[in-house]
Structures are given as structure tokens and as C-alpha cells.
Amino acid sequence: MSRESILNAVKKNKPDGLPLPEINLDFFDEDINLVETFVENLKFVGGRAVQLDNEALLDEEIKKLYPNASKIVSTTKLSQLGTIAISKEIDPHTLEDINLAIIKGELAVAENGAIWVTENDFIVRALPFITNDLILVISKNDIYLHMHQVFEAISKRDRTFGVFISGPSKTADIEQCLVVGAHGAISLTVFIV
Amino acid sequence: MKVGLFIPCYINQLYPQVGIATLELLEKLGVEVVYPMGQTCCGQPLGNSGYEDDSKGICQLFVENFKEFDYIVGPSGSCVYHVKKHFDILEQTDDVKRVRKNTYELCQFIYEVLGKTDLGASFPHKVGIHKSCHGLRGLRLGSCSERMDAHYSTEENLLKEVKGLELKTLNRVDECCGFGGTFSVFEEAISVKMGKDRIQDHLDSDVEVVTGADHSCLMHLEGLINRNKQPLKVMHIAEILNSSI
Amino acid sequence: MAHADEAAIFNKDEEKVDWHDKALWFVRQKRDKSAHKVKGWEELRNYASAIKANVLSNLDTYLLQFEENAQKNGVTVHWAANAEEHNKIVHGILQKHNAKKIVKSKSMLTEECHLNPYLEKHDIEVIDTDLGERIVQLAQEPPSHIVLPAIHKKKEEVDVLFQEHLGTKPCDGDPQYLTAEARKHLRSKFLKADAAITGVNFAVADTGGFVVCTNEGNADMGAHLAKVHIACMGMEKLIPQEKHLGIFLRLLARSATGQPITTYSSYFNKPEPDKEMHIVIVDNGRTEQLSREDFRASLHCIRCGACMNTCPIYRRSGGHSYKATIPGPIGSILSPGIDLKKHSSLPFASTLCGSCSDVCPVKINIHEQLYKWRQVIVKEVPQPIVKKNVLKMAGNVLANSKIYGFVGKSSRFMLKHTPRFMVYSKLNAWGKARDLPEVKGDNFDEWYKKRKKNE
């Protein structure tokens, strides 16, 4: 209702036009080992990295790390461990007691240990958050140096919902003590294949 | 080169030894220095309190007193900063512009204009620098801990060349001391607490003498040190740079 | 009460002041470490500042572009001129869905609009789901920091609070246990919520999408489980293009907590089928601030809280001493624009040290704006008569060399000869904890004259 009055006030009160800067990415360029930097930053944000030479070994490794997981959702063909099938139509509340979700990440960011995943990858938006533990699988060729490159890489896509995930859910709201496992996944393991 | 010596009001009245050291030091460095009588203040106490408009007469007098000099040099970063930054309230005549441009804090003048670091001083003591905020973040006398630039410090450059002087590193290298002009009175509790914390940092860092390029901060710290009878001495950097044994 | 009085009360417990100062300094140090690792940090700040300045100068265009794109994505866009309209809009959406149980993730805007009490009055349960915000909500306090809402609370206090409200066992303030209990408690709230409210960190004009950043995952738990998602945003949250997120996401978390990025940076573009997504764009004084040339850059703020962590006054007076939704340096330049009289002491709650401006990821000249607000305040808000007269008199004295010479000498005389009990009386705020400088011999003027004579 106030739309017009707000827009008119903005028009009246805004300063004269200022240019939008051209961003020179040379400032941010670095010649570093992307996998190493990614792994280092992933550890820093509380995640675990597992490097695999052969993606056929993935399920074996997951079973080693999560031997007790029984309610597993896998949304990637790379893993056959899924015990619960999901589709877009399910009520996300039914995922409440999922132990483990296995999702293919689209790309990873070396500078901050984050992985970009979208609705296409996890099907149900709540999945990567509501699961107790989370596994993301990325290809070592999909690691980018910094966020500028990443946004360039994902600029052409169907935009629905996507998220950068950097480590497990955490909080330091009680006296700055870092506690892993707030509302989202309490652990994050990233397989780099 | 003719330099007008700018002695801030509180130094004139309360710390004449700082003014004397500044004058002697500049003369020692071969500079022709004149002290214009009739100078008062830069107007900062009013400006910082919100009464900038009432300080125009003061600022104008400052310009009148110093307009004929090639450089204006004073031993107080915050007063110099005020001239450079806040004399925008005056009509920007050529005189005003020149005075603003040519006013320098003492260390900055020695380092940047005279290009000297070794001043032949000797001071065999453990010294901690209080990097006053207006000199640091206003005049950029050194790199600021918030910014990601390479490290530099005008005061350190000069003190490092003083014979026998041992420069100590603080835990918080450039935290404010809490003086802040009228802040020291109107926000007394925090001002005092900030000062106490700064002093403790110097004590924890094995400092004997606290120095700096702004005596207003030092006055505040000295007031606390004296009241609490703490084993620290306070000296303006001009006094150290002018000292010899 | 003025900030100075609140600060004096806070400073009665010096141990707590030290604890508070150290907790926040620790965050500042983490920020420094993190920023040092970024090549081109200062360039990032320059770009962020220039982009935000461009946004303000084209805000109407970007708002329209954002609205159009968001609508294309199936998002409903609302406009609120003020807090009241914002609250009504949110309530209206909730009513339409008969939503009675709401989960909310962190949003300083809804704090600013006092949304919680408004909804509670209408029999709607609002649960703040960020752990820190839940803590202060249970304690019935406002957040004391925009990123660390409960930074003023000791873990033992949280322990007692949780025992009382969540039925937890006494645990000596064990953060691990308390967080696990909060997870259980809030999980049940997420699962039962009818609608989720979130804030907005960045709204992207060229995609119509918006980004919400959290570490806990609470915004996502709320938004993806409930049928309705309402995102409330101040109109200054816009950025022109998606690629600019690269700049801002690199700066935000590093400046806030020293993390390289928040755990979750969730980018919402379209609602899921059968669900609704609403965006409420709020003015509430922002267009007025936009009109003030000296102060409009305050609208660059991305709410990282770095200026609070670095501010030596904030660290030693606590967020509540500011009595404003946004405390600390940035709050002290935003709040006077909203209510000049009420917040008139805030621009004076600073030594103008400038640390806030240098730490700011979008380069807001905070300390310069504090100085400028002071000039406005003494003209528009009645000042204590003594302060006003003393300073005006000083203006006259210092503009006149002769009178100054006389006054300077006489005040030196007073300082030297006034008995100690008068100098250090209660009225003298300087002397309460500090000695006055010792006056010795001649002032510089006199010394210089004598030296000239002897030349």
C-alpha cells in the first residue's frame, strides 16, 4: 500500500547517481593448491575431508565412518546406501529422524571450505539441514579459488533454492564457546573424488 | 624553510616542557622555528563537543597566526588532525587551504618532510608507545591494526634510532586510552576504565616509560598512574627524541 | 537515562567489564586473523563501499527491478512504510493461513519493528530460534549485540534460565549440554511451526532472490518445514547483481566472527510448490536517513557487528547501555536519525578513535558521522546549561589572544593554589579517579618570552 510513497521518497532523497564499480579480479588472484586449501579451510570450519582416488570406494568408506546409520537418504547415484527414497512430494517433516544424508555437491570453494548445493541435488529443501549427519561428495575438479569464480560458474542455472554449506551446524552463543551441532546437521564429511 | 611552532593550549599551560623539547629538537635539526605569540587553540574541544560553529573564530585566529609559514608543526596529533580535517567549516581561502595542507604533527614532519630518523638521541629505557587515535587513524602516522596494510609506524621509525632505547610491544597495539576530550569528563566511568586497561597493558609488557605523540592522552594516563602510584613514567615523544645523556 | 549513566552502572562490576571486554576482543582478534588471510581485503572493502553507494543512488530502480524479478519467481512482495505497517502485513499473512505458531530466525529488523510483542498480543506464539536470541527471549531482554545477542550473559546465567524454562538439569553452565538441550527444544518448535519468519542479509535486484546467512541452520529449518516463509528486509539490503554476493559474502562472516563464511548462506529464489514465500520491504525511517547527506552512508551497513567488537566503549559498557535496537557505533549513527532526542547521548558515547570506521567492511565513516551528529544535537536538543555556557565561553576566550593569555594564567593559578579537596570534589569528574597535572613554573609563552629576551 505504501509502495508508491516509499518509491517517491527514495526518488526525492537519493543522491546523484554513483557508478557501479567494475570488479578487477586480479586483486584476488592467488596461485595456491586448491584441494589443499579447501581441505584446510574445511577442517577450520569443523568439517571432515576424505580424499578418495576411486569413487567406487565411496560406500565402503561411508560405512566405516557411519556404521550405525540406518535411516539413510542418498540423492546421488554415487552411493547406493540409501534406505529411504524421497521425492519432491514428500512432507519434509517425515525426514525428522534421518541419520544420514548423502548428497552430491556441485562445486566447492577453496577460500572458505564451502560447498554449493542446490535443490536439484537434494530434492527436498529441508534434507541437508534436518539430517543428523551430512555427507557431501564433490569432484576435485570442481574446487574454485574464491567466491567470485564460483558466482561466475553458477551464473547460468535454474534458480530455485541453493545453499553454501561450510562445515556442520554450530553456535558460539553461550559465552563464545564453540559448540558443533545447533539446529542443522551435527557433522559434515566431504568426500573429494 | 620557515616553520611556525604550534603549541596546543593545554601544552602551553600545563606541559611547557613538551613545548620546549619540541622547539629545541626542531632547532637541533637545523630548522628555523618561530613561535607566533598570540596563538591559542585549534578549536578541537568545541568541535568534538558539537560546538563547531562557535569555534570558527578560534580556527580563523589559528590561520591568521600561521598563514605566513612554510610549515606549521605541533607536538599533538589530534590538534593537527583537527586543523587538517575540520577546518572545512571556514571559507576555503588560499590561506586556509595552505595552512591545512602544511600543518604537520612533529614526528610526521621529521620523518616525511625532513626525511630524518636518527636524531642523535639517547634514552636507555624500556619504552612503550601509546599510539593516539587521531594521529594513527586520522593522520595515518602508522598502520592501523584494523586494516590489512603492511606494518609501518612513524613513531617507531624515530624511536628505533634512539640509543639504548628498548621498544616494547603491547598486547593491544593501538587501542584507545579513553581520553577523548570532554568524553573524559562526561563519560567518566568508561574513560577511566579504558585508561586503566591501557596502563595495565604497558605494565604487563615490561614498560618503564609510556610515550606518544599526543600529550592529551598522556595527561589522562598520567593522571591515573599518579593517582594509583604505578611504576610508570609518562613522557612526550619530543622529550625522548630531544634527550641525550 | 543517558549512555554515560548506564555505562557507569555497568562499570560498578569491574570483573564483569573485563570479562565482557575480553569476550568481544577475542572476536575482534578472530576477525583480524581471518581478514589477514584474504588477499585484497582492502580492495574488497573499497568495492563493497562503492557498490553500496551505487545502490543508494539508484535505490528506487533496484527496488523495482527486485520486485519484478521476485514476482516472476512466484514470491509475493509487500511494502511497509513503517514498523506498524510491517507488523500488520506480517500479521495479515499469518491470519490468512491461520498460523498460530511461528519460528523466527535472526532479524534485527523485526526487533526494530517490535514484531514479537505485536504478534503475541494477537495470540500468536513467536519463538526466536537463534540460540542467542532464544536465550534473551527467555530472559525477556533485548539482544545486546546484533550478531551475538546474548554476549552479555554468563554461561551460568544461561544454565539457570534453561532450568527454569526448559527443565534442564543443573550443569555448571556446560555449553555443550545447554546447546544440545536447546536443539531438542527448538527442534520440536520447528516441527510444529505454521510459518517461518527470517531476516534478509542480501536481496539481489537482478535475480529477485535473497540470501539469509546463519551458522545454526535455524533459518533453513524454519523456512523449509513451514508452509509459509516471510522474509523481512530493510530496503537498504539490496545489491545490484548476483556476482556482487561474491564481494559481500567474503566480507560478512569474516568481519562478524572471523569465520571465512557462515555455515549456511542460503539463497532463496522460488517458493516450493504448494508453499508461499513473502518478502516485506521496510522503510521505517530509511528514506529519511537517505535524505541526510552526511548520514546516508550509514545505510551501507550489512549488520556484521564488527564495529561493536572493536569499540572500546561498547566492550566496556555492554550493548544494553545504548538503549537502542542497534547498539554500538553503528547504532549511534542510525538511532539519532530515528529519534534524535531519545538517542542524543549516543554520538557522545565515543572518543572518536575511528577504529569502527577502519574495521567496517563497507567503509562507513562511522566516527566522522558521530562528530557530525554532535553538531546537529547541540543545536536541536536542549543541552545542560553549564556545558553549553562553558563551551560557548571557551569559544570566545580562545578566539581572543589577550583574554586567553589572562584566563590561561589564572586557571594555572587556580590549579596550583586551590586546595586539594576542592579540586577533587565530587563535582570534578576528572579528579574522581585521576590526578590533575602538576603545574610548575612558567607556561610555554612565558618561557619563550624570557628566552627571546636573553638571546
Automatic annotation (TrEMBL), chain A:
SUPFAM superfamilies according to UniProt: NagB/RpiA/CoA transferase-like (SSF100950)
InterPro entries: FTHF_cligase-like_sf, LUD_dom, NagB/RpiA_transferase-like
Domain LUD: 95-193
Xref: Pfam families: LUD_dom
Top-rank taxon: Bacteria
Protein name according to UniProt: LUD domain-containing protein
Organism: Mariniflexile soesokkakense
UniProtKB/TrEMBL annotation, chain B:
Pfam assignment, any one: CCG
Source domain of life: Bacteria
Cysteine-rich domain ranges (all copies): 3-83, 128-221
Coiled coil, from the record: none
Name of the protein in question: (Fe-S)-binding protein
Natural source organism: Mariniflexile soesokkakense
From TrEMBL, chain C:
Residues covered by the 4Fe-4S ferredoxin-type domain: 291-312
UniProtKB keywords: 4Fe-4S, Electron transport, Iron, Iron-sulfur, Metal-binding, Repeat, Transport
Pfam families: Fer4_8 (PF13183), LUD_dom (PF02589), LutB_C (PF11870)
Matches recorded under PROSITE patterns: 4FE4S_FER_1, 4FE4S_FER_2
Entry-linked InterPro entries: 4Fe4S_Fe-S-bd, 4Fe4S_Fe_S_CS, FTHF_cligase-like_sf, Helical_ferredxn, LUD_dom, LutB/LldF, LutB_C, NagB/RpiA_transferase-like
Domain of life: Bacteria
Protein name: Lactate utilization protein B
Organism: Mariniflexile soesokkakense
